[in-house]
Amino acid sequence: MSRIELVDAGVTAPTPGGESDEVVVLHPTTLELTERRVALVGPNGSGKSTLARLFNGLVAATTGRVVVDGLDVARKGREVRRRVAFAFTDPSAQLVMPTVLEDVVLSLRRHHRSKQARTDAALATLAHYGLADLAHRSVHTLSGGQRQLVALAGVLATDPDVLVADEPTTLLDLANSALVAETLLGLPQQVVLATHDLDLAQRCDRALLVTDGRVVADGDPAAVVAEYRARVAATR
């Protein structure tokens, strides 16, 4: 598994209206992730998506450092992004070509020189994930679950070492949520999930609870989820 390290990594943002003070989105955080399956849980606006986006440089740390397998994300961002793929909550943010095959081919443009090689690799990827029959379908005719699986196939076609997925089941119904969850848990890659699906979180190897921009619990998923539930219950 890869090693993701945060050393006093924090994120601040300008306040609305351009005032001099800044908002702390994520307080300085130090941690090391080496487990195969890691869940990030917490309420909306807690900072868990910001934390997830630090891992491949989609969000830049304003303090401290983020390091993946010895590569500093701030200095070696391109190399890190080859290793760490990112899947968004809404697959529409990733599916930009007319057909499924064309979209996966696009993700391989830097990995294969010839068009035929890209097409062959894309078809092989779709077949691997049981999506071969969708190859020539318009991305606009897919169901929510199909769209999320195709988006995942697109990022996984490049064979990353790590997949970071930001709430990948949030927009899905129960059946499609279960299908995407099983796909994610069955991947050979290291997977980091920012999720509201607490059942999915408990199936991971480690969980982190993020609240008010801080990691307030870290460890066994069942214990972390129980802590999260207790905190929510205490606010009612």
Quick synopsis:
The protein is α/β, with parallel strands linked by helices. Helix content is 34%, strand content 26%.
How is this structure best described in words?
- The longest helix has 14 residues, at 115-128.
- The protein has helices at residues 48-54, 77-83, 100-107, 115-128, 144-156, 174-185, 198-202, 221-234, and strands at residues 4-14, 22-33, 37-41, 63-68, 71-72, 84-87, 162-166, 190-194, 206-211, 214-219.
- The strands form 2 sheets. Strands 6-7-8-3-9-10 form a 6-stranded mixed β-sheet, sandwiched between helices. A 4-stranded antiparallel β-sheet has the order 2-1-4-5.
- The radius of gyration is 18 Å and the shape is globular.
- It is an alpha/beta fold.
- The protein has 8 helices and 10 strands.
- 34% of the residues lie in helices and 26% in strands.
- The chain has a single domain (4-234), classed as P-loop containing nucleotide triphosphate hydrolases (Rossmann fold), CATH 3.40.50.300.
- This is ABC transporter ATP-binding protein.
- Residues 1-20 are annotated as: Disordered.
- Belongs to the ABC transporter superfamily.
- Residues 4-234 form the ABC transporter domain.
- Keywords: ATP-binding, Nucleotide-binding, Transport.
Q: What attributes does this structure have?
A:
four-stranded antiparallel beta sheet; 236 residues
CATH architecture: 3-Layer(aba) Sandwich
Count of DSSP helices?
8
Largest sheet: 6 strands, mixed
What Rg, in angstroms, do the CA atoms define?
18 Å
Instruction: Kindly report the name of the CATH homologous superfamily.
Output: P-loop containing nucleotide triphosphate hydrolases
Order of helices and strands: EEEHEEHEHHHEHEHEEH
Number of strands: 10
Distance between the first and last residues' Cα: 40 Å
The pLDDT mean sits at: 93
The name of the CATH topology is Rossmann fold
What percentage of amino acids are in beta strands? 25-35%
Low-confidence stretches: none
Assigned CATH class: Alpha Beta
Broad structural category: alpha/beta
Helix content: 25-40%
Q: How many domains make up the 3D coordinates?
A: 1
What global shape is seen? globular
Spatial order of strands in the largest sheet: 6-7-8-3-9-10
Keywords: ATP-binding, Nucleotide-binding, Transport
Family: Belongs to the ABC transporter superfamily.
Organism: Nocardioides imazamoxiresistens
Domain ABC transporter: 4-234
